[in-house]
């Protein structure tokens, strides 16, 4: 649990070899070594792990099944997994594995040791125009890809933009993302209030029937303003009334220091923070038409040929160190003691004659047995049945086999003809 970030980064790079795949499609908790906790969200926590057979490092998000039931969050978790299994983009976090056990749901994703932009804003207050524009371009490419897949993220904010070791961005947290097909629109108010677009609030007040992909571009505009100035454009908080929020958003945002911000960048920012979604820059093609972007080669940015203007420090973990202390000292069910805890439960169950095919849905959070007909037990059984098992390593292996098979067929056809 005492690994430093520099050791983790070096170890991850040195062991980034082709995986030696196992014969089983599913992975389990036993396939990984838990190294340290690095973050938490509303529905789960994140830790650094190492896959035992390949020595490759990942980040693992885990969520209590009981907490998912209490917060009615399982549908969102399931939708997030469904979306992430379809996505593969250089600026979007990649999902590698999903699995479950008696207590938790697990999602294993890319390990991004550069920290999120919220952390870096807290350390530096604000960023240079060059650096902010670099982030803008990479995030814009990610949004363009998402929207081409009919996916609206709905929670673009610095906390959900991670940096890798080289300084490239990766969008994460698709917990409230939604798929909009066939011209459909979203209509529920979802997101983080200071970053939510005006049309979303208008829907909540029944002044509009729906909203679409332009909402993500407004959120990006708020992020850009915050990164360049160190504060958000409007004084909006979770308790601010919807009417007050719309009053703020209709007014011009506070002007920025012209000595540190070019007129062209200010104009670009204004095109993102436009109240009416129909008049807002809301696609990559529209962004490219802005004068400020005229000389930008987005293909090179996509290929990561453009060097990031900021490289996260490699001699430290770019996150709040208290997460690890919380996991070890405060957490009621610390992850590093899971195997011992579950083994003890199983032994108790055997002694009581209640072993039920190793299905610990029979247990409550406290470890006591639950009645077979309890509502929580039924919800846990539903989670067990509906949860999606995913293994990207296996998917890649199958894809490579299909490609080789196609080549063999083509070569065989040439020989026959």
CATH class label of the largest domain: Alpha Beta
Model regions low in confidence, pLDDT < 50 over at least 5 residues: 13-23
Helix content: 40-55%
Biggest sheet strand order reads: 1-2-3-5-4-10
Report on the biggest sheet: 6 strands, antiparallel
For the CA atoms, what is the radius of gyration? 24 Å
What percent of residues are in strands? 5-15%
CATH architecture descriptor of the largest domain: 2-Layer Sandwich
CATH homolog superfamily of the largest domain: Phosphorylase Kinase, domain 1
GO molecular function: ATP binding; G protein-coupled receptor binding; G protein-coupled receptor kinase activity
Keywords: ATP-binding, Kinase, Nucleotide-binding, Serine/threonine-protein kinase, Transferase
Binding site for ATP: 61
Pfam family, one: Pkinase
Descriptive notes:
- One of its GO terms (biological process) is G protein-coupled receptor signaling pathway.
- GO terms for molecular function: ATP binding; G protein-coupled receptor binding; G protein-coupled receptor kinase activity.
- This is Protein kinase domain-containing protein.
- It comes from Tetranychus urticae.
- This protein folds into 2 domains: 191 residues, Phosphorylase Kinase, domain 1; 186 residues, Transferase(Phosphotransferase), domain 1, CATH 1.10.510.10.
- Helices cover 40% and strands 12% of the residues.
- The protein has 15 helices and 10 strands.
- The strands form 3 sheets. Strands 1-2-3-5-4-10 form a 6-stranded antiparallel sheet. The protein has a two-stranded antiparallel ribbon with strand order 6-9.
- A hairpin with a 4-residue loop joins strand 1 and strand 2.
- Helix 5 packs antiparallel against helix 7, helix 6 packs antiparallel against helix 8 and helix 7 runs antiparallel to helix 9.
- The protein is globular and about 70 Å long.
């Amino acid at each position: 649990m005492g690994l430093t970030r520099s050791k983790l980064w070096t170890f991850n790079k040195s062991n980034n070899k082709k995986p030696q795949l196992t014969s089983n499609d599913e992975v389990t908790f036993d396939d990984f070594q838990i190294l340290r906790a690095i973050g938490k969200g509303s529905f789960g926590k994140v830790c650094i792990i190492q896959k035992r057979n390949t020595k490759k490092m990942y980040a693992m998000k885990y969520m209590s099944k009981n907490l998912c039931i209490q917060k009615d969050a399982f549908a969102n978790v399931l939708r997030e997994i469904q979306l992430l299994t379809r996505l593969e983009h250089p600026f979007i976090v990649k999902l590698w594995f999903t699995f479950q056990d008696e207590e938790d749901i697990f999602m294993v994703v890319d390990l991004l040791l550069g920290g999120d932009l919220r952390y870096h804003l807290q350390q530096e207050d604000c960023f240079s125009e060059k650096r902010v524009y670099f982030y803008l371009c990479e995030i814009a490419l990610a949004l363009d890809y998402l929207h081409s897949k009919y996916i609206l993220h709905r929670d673009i904010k610095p906390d959900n933009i991670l940096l890798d070791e080289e300084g490239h961005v990766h969008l994460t947290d698709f917990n409230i993302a939604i798929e909009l097909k066939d011209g459909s629109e979203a209509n529920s108010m979802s997101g983080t209030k200071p970053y939510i677009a005006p049309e979303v609030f208008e829907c909540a007040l029944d002044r509009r029937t729906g909203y679409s992909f332009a909402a993500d571009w407004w959120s990006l505009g708020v992020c850009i303003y915050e990164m360049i100035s160190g504060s958000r454009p409007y004084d909006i908080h979770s308790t601010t009334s919807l009417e007050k929020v719309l009053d703020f958003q209709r007014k011009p945002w506070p002007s920025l220091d012209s000595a540190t911000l070019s007129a062209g960048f200010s104009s670009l920012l204004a095109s993102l923070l436009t109240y009416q979604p129909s008049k807002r820059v809301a696609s990559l093609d529209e962004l490219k038409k802005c004068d400020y972007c005229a000389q930008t080669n987005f293909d090179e940015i996509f290929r990561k040929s453009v060097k990031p203007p900021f490289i996260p420090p490699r001699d430290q973990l770019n996150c709040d160190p208290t997460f690890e202390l919380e996991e070890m000292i405060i957490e009621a069910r610390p992850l590093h003691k899971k195997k011992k805890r579950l083994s003890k439960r199983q032994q108790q169950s055997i002694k009581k004659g209640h072993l039920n095919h190793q299905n610990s849905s029979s247990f409550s959070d406290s470890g006591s047995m639950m009645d077979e007909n309890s509502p929580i037990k039924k919800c846990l059984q539903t989670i067990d049945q509906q949860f999606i098992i995913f293994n990207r390593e296996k998917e890649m292996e199958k894809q490579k086999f299909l490609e080789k098979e196609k080549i063999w067929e083509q070569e065989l056809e040439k020989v026959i003809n």
